[in-house]
Specification:
CATH topology of the largest domain: Arc Repressor Mutant, subunit A
GO molecular function: methylated-DNA-[protein]-cysteine S-methyltransferase activity
CATH architecture of the largest domain: Orthogonal Bundle
Family: Belongs to the MGMT family.
InterPro entries: MethylDNA_cys_MeTrfase_AS, MethylDNA_cys_MeTrfase_DNA-bd, MethylDNA_cys_MeTrfase_DNAb, MethylG_MeTrfase_N, MGMT, MGMT_N_sf, WH-like_DNA-bd_sf
Strand order of the largest sheet: 7-6-5-8
Strand content: 15-25%
Catalytic activity: a 6-O-methyl-2'-deoxyguanosine in DNA + L-cysteinyl-[protein] = S-methyl-L-cysteinyl-[protein] + a 2'-deoxyguanosine in DNA; a 4-O-methyl-thymidine in DNA + L-cysteinyl-[protein] = a thymidine in DNA + S-methyl-L-cysteinyl-[protein]
Subcellular location: Cytoplasm
């Protein structure tokens, strides 16, 4: 029966023990075959690693992940007149607002895939965003003053979203007007797609974009929610 092998590795050079006997780079007492990667590959189930080494390894991996830009995504859910809204933010700013009909669990899963696997419920980090959303629905806020993370939108879609933030409360623009304003009058359908895929509805007001004949068009939160938002803003 093969004896259990206990391997502990130091940061610089090899410092291992096999069955309690010190092993150097050239084998016991510096003689014989070296203990190298092939030995471990032959019997990985017989290897245990010093917990201290694992701790340092985990710390290095966490530091490397941070260096590579892996962010935390914090979220909370708030109650509003148009239903429960999921608010999510990275360290750069608000990155997602999602209606309940979109499936909050599905939205969080997608954020984990596209932004970071570190998803955490952190109401405190979104306290200011929640406060401004409450003020907006109470009719006490005409515009949002929040840092935004538009990393979920790219190219033409991001250009459209940046324009939408400039449509004032109580006003609307047609899809054609938005297309012309962003320098591509023929891209009416693309403007519609940008609005439909807006990751930060309400705060980035894609609900203020309507059809040229005045009808509502589509909306990620549903036409009832779009109607409610426009009525709220008209009253304000």
């Amino acid at each position: 029966m093969m004896a259990h092998t206990n391997i502990s590795t130091q940061q610089n050079g090899i410092g291992a023990r096999r069955n309690g006997e010190a092993v150097t780079a050239g084998g016991p007492s510096g003689k014989g075959p070296a203990l190298g990667p092939v030995d471990l590959a032959l019997a990985p189930e017989l290897v245990t690693v010093d917990p201290g080494i694992l701790g340092r390894l985990h710390a290095r991996l966490a530091e490397r992940a941070s260096d590579e830009g892996l962010l935390d995504v914090a979220y909370r859910v708030v109650e509003t007149p148009v239903g429960r809204l999921l608010l999510a933010a990275t360290e750069r700013g608000l990155v997602r607002v999602a209606y309940e009909r979109e499936g909050h669990d599905a939205v969080l899963s997608l954020l984990a895939e596209r932004l970071s696997p570190r998803i955490l419920e952190a109401p405190g980090r979104l306290a200011e965003a929640a406060r401004q959303v409450d003020e907006y629905f109470a009719g006490r806020r005409r515009s949002f003053d929040l840092p935004l993370d538009l990393s979920l939108s790219h190219g033409f879609r991001r250009t459209v979203l940046q324009h939408l933030s400039g449509i004032p409360l109580g006003a609307t623009e047609s899809y054609a007007e938005v297309a012309k304003a962003v320098g591509n009058p023929r891209a009416v359908r693309a403007v519609g797609t940008a609005c439909a895929t807006n990751p930060i509805p309400v705060v980035v007001p894609c609900h203020r974009v309507v059809r040229s004949d005045g009808s509502l068009g589509g909306y990620v939160g549903g036409l009832e929610a779009k109607t409610s938002l426009l009525r709220l803003e008209a009253a304000a």
